[in-house]
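@channel anyone free to eyeball this complex?
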Amino acid sequence: MSRYTAKPLPHVDLPELRQVGKPLRRVDAMGKAVGTTVYAGDFSMPRMLHAKVFRSAHAAARIVRLDVSRARALPGVACVLTSADIPMAKLVSDIPGQTGQQQRAGSEVPVLAIDQVRYYGEPIALVAAETLDVAERALSLIEVEYAPAAGVFDPVEALRPGAPVIHPPDNAVARWRIHKGDLDAGFAEADVIVENTFRVPYQEHAFLEPEAGVAWVDERGVVNIRVSTQVVEHFRSIARAVGVPENKIRIQGTMVGGGFGGKEDITVEIYLALLAKHTQRPVKLVYTREESMVAHSKRHPYIIKHRTGVKKNGRITAAKIDVLSDSGPYPYLSPYVLLYTAVMAAGPYRVDNVSVEAVTAATNNPFTSAFRGFGGPQACFAYEQQMNAIAGKLGMDPLELRRINYLHTGDTTPTGQVIETAAWLEETATRAMEALGDKTPANGVVKVGQGFSSFYQSYGRIMWLHDTSQAWVGMELDGTVTIRAGVPDLGAGQVNSLCQIAAEVLGVPLERVSIYSTDSATTPLSGTSTATRQLYMSGNATLLAANTVRRALLDRASKHFEEAPENLDLAEGRVFVKSDPAQSMPVADLAKKCASEGIHLANLAMFKAPFVDPIDPETGQGRVFPDFTFGSYAVEVAVDTESGQVQVLKAAACHDVGRAINRAAAEGQIAGGGMQGLGYALIEDLIVKEGVIQTPSLAEYLIPTSMDFPTTRVIILESGTGVGPFGAKGIGEPSLTPVGPAVAAAVADAIGVHIHELPLTPERVLAAMDRARKS
Amino acid sequence: MKLEVITLKINGRLHPVALAPNVTLLTALRDLGYTDVKCGCEQGDCGACAVLLNGEAVNSCLVLAWQADGAEVTTSAGLGTAEHPHPLQVAFADTGAIQCGYCTPGLIITSKALLDRNAHPDEAAIRDAISGNLCRCTGYGHIIQAVQTAAERLAEGKTPSAGGAQ
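replying in thread with the prediction:
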């Protein structure tokens, strides 16, 4: 028997749909299964050059001398570029493709280091050569003399007076403050005050496909870049850095071999653009695994301090939360990741008196930016562990404490945003715990524990970024459907969802829908595949466009059948009278009629997320996100108290996805996010010494194999209340968020010791047990 | 380095190629256009480059092309096409075993080698067989299901359709 019993869900009236919600074979699946999908690194062109990047061997140094003459002279070398050749080449390391970009110290990143390097692996020179071998030899002929400078490798140190400053005026890259209610009054009202400090580590994306691309200049002078990216809109900053108009850079995105945020910032495409422009030849650049691990961002390490006031009855009266993250030497998305952490720092709980002070500090460590969850998992590890600590202090059951404090629809978040959709927290927590079933009996030194965590996480972008997405939907004369949308597909089923939505609306089988995507020149811009926004944004844009085409079809059919359009429907490639389906015609015939009469059977729609003003900079009050996904994760672990080894015995996730568009894909996101979260919690350990990654391979930085953890059991709930198409919420990123603290809770249940730092390595578990014994 | 002409027999096609002794089978295959063989790490950690070498699954990044001279090399694209897919390819496509797809060719090859020696593997046998193939997207559950589904279909002797699962 589980400790908890799930109560029946509130009644939800979800209309049965023909295609949406079904676990159909994704439109991208067969090409990937038989190997015909051409990924970025699989593509080659005649006369193509091969590129390599020369990178810094120091984390903090002045470049005293840089001599590339021997590399340039090597036969077979077509081009060597340093910052001297491209003085204007800077990139804005900020949220791309939006109008509200902020300028702050260090937010302009030189494409190639100018006089100074600020992190290990910072690019210094580019080489393009006839073969990869020659390019590699050229790298070894580049001479650089460094004068090592004092670096700073700890965000706490970085904020102290006298610390080396990475970019003037100081190392505080960004701050956010959230103040709501009366903190002093809240603490005065409390019976108990609980204080803890939590630490979370780096995480490496470890997508299976290292960064890759090919660029060439076409006959019109357009620089074409075929690249694996989450963000087509980078063509704008690339144009600025290369010094050409925006309409002279074309990004042709490929199927992405895994992104998780690591292909959200610009990767190889800027180097490719510069080399193609300088050589006027096609150029290919593919990172090795080690280069990939050095060259792209990491998940931010954080130190999060919670001070919580609580009544004996369990009601939270006040929360003071201090957040510090390590941004590395350039801001990239750190300020926004920090905002996410700050907004969600108090967890899915009603806290009327709350103060969050958040800061991200520049260091000479590897730079940090987006990673699935975007500051949410770090916040969740801290707030859920804090809830368990409070429950322990009050002698209260962890679920009971949460039940008293869980957010409900209509409550407000710390920024004053009202929760407008379903907030199924207890519903998901009890179901996830129930799915674990009976606790496995302990066996001698091996102790067994169960634990869970609840969370909320936004989907859709920060609202003052004024997010939009476009999609084009048209019907061909044979009744097939074409979609054009600039959506990058990271493997989560982004393009398939759009196809399934159009198939539903236009009543054609999924195989009759074809999509062109991810091309800045030929597909309407749909925005980035980040922030769990594509289903919400581009799903809604596709829905708008498809509905316009549907209306045109049904208006014409209404004349033919002499029935009002609302009495007609489209399914299985036919238009028919609902009350008498025998009265029907193939949709292809209807499409031909429309074409011959000049009825437009295509539509380009733009979906706009609600636009709001930024939050108040002093109080952090205001609306931040379009909506939130709610859910819970539960884990059973066995802890060997002699070796410290933690073995996951069972894992279950329960999330309200609003509405699953493709059930298998939604399950895949949840199971996959679960596995990445288990890796983060237990085995993924990026070791960085003086700014240098000590574990730059998949043999040293271990990600979960099929033998490490059980598959997460997935329970999908559908409240139908999301702001996405058909009531969908977002699940891509949220699926990872609650895993870490659930594991820590299960370990604590097994051994009676709360460990406030990830990953829960055997060494850390043993050390925590030692400390507990001594105190 | 000295080039030597060897003959690579890939998916039944013969390719006489002049290669240096340090060229890996992975590089040789990709240079010949067999880009369904993926490169994920080039040091045997990820399994994305797995191919069958005389029926055995190997990481092609750990095999020198010269070692494959005259041997039968089968890549995942050699198992089936979109029109005539192998049951494993159909099962992977239908069970959600494919997300980003970059690990898929290697996993299909490893699974093929498994089913060739064990027609009815249980979950533990599948987990063990694919433990050298990293997947960062799926959490492995759907992949294990796909291998089981393919095993069942192969045992029933069914020819799966190239079309959708619906």
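from a first look: Residues 468-608 of chain A form a domain with the Aldehyde Oxidoreductase; domain 4 fold (CATH 3.30.365.10).
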